[in-house]
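Forgive a beginner's question, but would it be possible to get any protein sequence you like and the tokens describing how it folds?
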Amino acid sequence: MPQPPSTKALGSPFLELQSVDSTNNYARRLIKEACLPDRQGFALHGTAIFAHEQVAGKGQRSKVWSSEKEANIILSLVVNPQPLQLIQQFQLSACVALAVQEFFMKYAGNETKIKWPNDLYWQDRKAGGILIESGIGSLSTRHTGGESAGGIWEWAIIGIGININQTDFPADLPNPVSLKQITGKTFDTVALAKELCAVLNEKFTELINQGFENIYARYVHHLYKRNATIKLKKNNRMFEAVLKTISPSGKLMVQHSIEEDPIAIGFDFNDVEWVIK
């Protein structure tokens, strides 16, 4: 199992791969190896896996995350989330999203936002995404930001993809954007990934040592489309609602535009899909 958070900083060691199926899959294989009898105690917490090419990247809702070779940040980190409990999964999700937002905002400016639960947006365009996969007892789950209960949260794999130097995207992507498109500059992706690891370590240390309150407040402050009307899909029904806030447990709190009752209704990530035109 990954060692406790206090022993190592996130991003150490930093493994650089030329090509891989998925950095999350690679991290999962490292964890599996660490559980073998002859590898007991093998340190994993903090390990970062960076790939110049990923041929089978994974996104939210079982979607594929495609990325141009040697153009972007493709990064996964292994984390021991304890002392966080399983019902606090959103705290880690929000912590990572805030770290990615602050990192990207340094280069792209204040129009950098967090789209619930943990996508990276610049203006109305997607610059990156996060996928956190968790090991819970003998079970593994894909965590999307909502609330869960039961079991022991043994490990988490934080997968991050950020568009850096890519300027040509697949036609079926509705709204992609890269840092190069925003700034007109070309960046060293490895150097940026290591910088991102430092920001992630800072935020994760804050979460473990100081709690969730300040991270949650900043997450809500940088929330994409807060107090604006958004389009949602529940089952096969489309409807519009005003995004009010995100609850501390990760629920999307909205007010239906057709309802007079001002009390916001909460949805978990798996309850609704946010529809982007």
